[in-house]
Amino acid sequence: MFEDNLSIRETKKVQKNRNAVLVTIFLLFIVTLPQILLGVIVIPGVLQGVRPGPEEIAKHMSADAYILSVLYGTILASILFYLFARKYLNRNNASLGLKSNDKLKNYIKGAIIGLIMMTSVFLQLKIYDQAQISLNYKNVSPAIFFVFLIGWMLQGFSEELMCRSILMNYFAAYNGVKSAIISNSLIFAIMHIGNPGFGLLAFINLFLMGVIFSLLFYISDDIFMPAAAHTFWNFSQANIYGISVSGLSQTSTNLIKSKLVGNSYLTGGVFGVEASFLTLWIEVMVVIIFINAAKKKSKEEASKFALENN
User: Fold this and answer.
1) Nearest-angstrom CA–CA distance, 168 and 96
2) Where are the transmembrane segments (predicted)?
3) Which neighbouring-strand residues pair with 260?
4) Where are the domains of the chain?
């Protein structure tokens, strides 16, 4: 059993009792809203019934323009998530993990974790001859590269604000930390179900990635740590190593070009390495490490709570 940390205790104090199903459905609607608006803008005839899914939208835009539109569209989602949490759920910044005094330090730690994890996967692709790799940095505009970095930072923060800040602590306040980690991680995996190439292994890997981000949030009590890990996992995957992220179109703005050519169980096929066994075993190891760290954090929280109530 994991003891409540500060943000969960604060959630219990201030959160209004709302229907969990309705809360989840509304948050998932907010996730899709930027894509719906993008579809209306770029797809002729969308208002007459054309479904604005990722593949359909991508047909009408270059890969880089499409990905950047998706990334920067999360600004709208983040604003709506925050307003929903503050106004409808009566949550405050402390309950959302936004009050840490160590935001920069935690962000750097999270970024390093995300980079190390993706680099571990990339090196396995190289070692097992599952990818044809070539350098591409001379063809990359530094300005566009930076624009992508900011975009991934916005996207990583947005999804963590929804899944960890809002949903994880929402569930933890009523059903405990372990249940909350499982519940929000399942929702995180389900969010990607419409992406090209999504399958069982992608679902398992995304669930485990959700568990990793959840454990980081619990350990740090700061949403900026999992947001950074999320950001730099995706950014390094797409713009450093040139690998498709969650089945999305592959960007041309990457330092290394990687053509996945091996066994789909190792490369992840259309979905990319997030549907790979190479990713799975890395995630399992990281989950084990972070569970042990979370147990230590739980003991610290129990001692702190005991002192406060003596």
Assistant:
1) 10
2) 21-46, 66-85, 106-128, 140-158, 170-191, 197-219, 231-249, 269-294
3) 131
4) 6-308
Residue 271 has what DSSP assignment? G
3-class DSSP assignment, residue 58: helix
Q: Using one digit for the tens of pLDDT, what is the confidence trace for 34-78?
A: 877 776 565 554 444 545 555 555 555 567 888 898 899 999 999
> pLDDT tens, 10-20?
999 999 999 99
Are 239 and 169 spatial neighbours (Cβ–Cβ below 8 Å)?
no
> Hunting for tokens 């981000």 — which residue is that?
213
SS3 14: helix
Amino acid at residue number 168: M
CA-angle at 281, arms to 159 and 24, nearest 5°: 25
pTM value surpassing 0.85: yes
Closest CA to 92 of 159, 7, 160: 7
110/213 Cα distance (integer angstroms): 9
The pLDDT assigned to 40 comes to: 58
